[in-house]
Amino acid sequence: MKQEHTVKMDGRKTIELTGVQQVERFDSSEFLLQTVMGKLKVKGSGLKMKHFDTVNKKAAIEGRISSFLYVESSTGMSLFRRSK
Amino acid sequence: MKQEHTVKMDGRKTIELTGVQQVERFDSSEFLLQTVMGKLKVKGSGLKMKHFDTVNKKAAIEGRISSFLYVESSTGMSLFRRSK
Fold first, then answer.
1. Are the beta carbons of B23 and B13 closer than 8 angstroms?
2. How many C-alpha atoms does B54 have within 13 Å on its Cβ side?
3. Which residue in chain B is spatially nearest to A8 when comparing CA positions?
4. Residue of A nearest to B71 (CA)
5. For chain A, what is the total number of helices (H) and then of strands (E)?
6. Over its length of 84 residues, how does chain A's per-residue pLDDT go in tens digits?
7. Which of A12, A68, A69 sits opposite B37 (nearest CB)?
8. Residues from B in contact with A at Cβ < 8 Å
9. Is the ipTM of this complex over 0.90?
10. Mapping DSSP to helix (H, G, I), strand (E, B) and coil, where does residue A78 land?
């Protein structure tokens, strides 16, 4: 199964995302999304959820975008490492 | 004249941008772009310039993307503020 993840931003006003597994939390200044390629933090002001669809893994956010940041799960790697 | 600015990212591997006026500097871990909607910093690793076209204001970057950040010109506002 293909695990696509795309981000399309138009004019710092809208973002459309694919490959979104979950919206972990959000408020008007920050969204935390679980994507197929890691956690993504979107920061801005006046942010609103336009839509979110778990079946198609799509989400859209509206507002004034100031940054996107992938939160690397460096701790996750060590947790899932097994000693044999 | 329309001042469009769009960002399209595919799988954290490629970014295509419109509304890019200038590439101010770049290396393998950071690009600084002047766009029609402010300065944009793109961070990651193994970043490469795929293309840049001043006429159409388009740019494309390849590599492992970790973040995008619009650098707000807050100092600019106070500098241009006039006392009457």
1. no
2. 3
3. B8
4. A66
5. 1, 6
6. 567 999 999 999 999 999 999 999 999 999 999 999 999 999 999 999 999 999 999 999 999 999 999 997 654 444 444 444
7. A12
8. 4-12, 37-38, 65-70, 72
9. no
10. helix
